[in-house]
Amino acid sequence: MEIKWRALINCNGKLGVLRQDHNGCFSGTTRSLELWVLDDVKKLKWLRQIYVLPPLWKNLVANTRLNIVGMTGNGEFVFSPAVLRDPFYILYYNVEKSTIVRVIIQGIGPVSGQEIYTFIDHVEDLKRM
């Protein structure tokens, strides 16, 4: 499997490799997601899954470049814009229901154009030392 333009994700406890578009991101022109899951570590058996994105994807994403953030425990792909925009949002794509939910994150500020890195399952300890 060619490594260029691929993202490693946790796919329900197994190693997942998500193929990205030619520019290393996803966009409104992305029609499907190609996911490879390492099913058997000892035999190096990979399973390939193709998820066709619903038409709503093109309208929601448009010309925005998206990075894959990861996958939730419920099997939803999580995407974030590669560049900070106002409003800032996260997209959740549920492969079983073929639904997309856009969640706007408030409080980021009016800054635009800077690269932003979003992480899934990050927990910060807010206790005072």
Automatic annotation (TrEMBL):
Task: Provide an example Pfam family for this protein.
Answer: FBA_3
- InterPro entries cross-referenced by the UniProt entry: F-box-assoc_dom_typ3, F-box-assoc_interact_dom
Q: Where is the F-box associated beta-propeller type domain positioned along the sequence?
A: 7-123
Q: What is this protein called?
A: F-box associated beta-propeller type 3 domain-containing protein
Query: Which organism is this protein's natural source?
Result: Arabidopsis lyrata subsp. lyrata
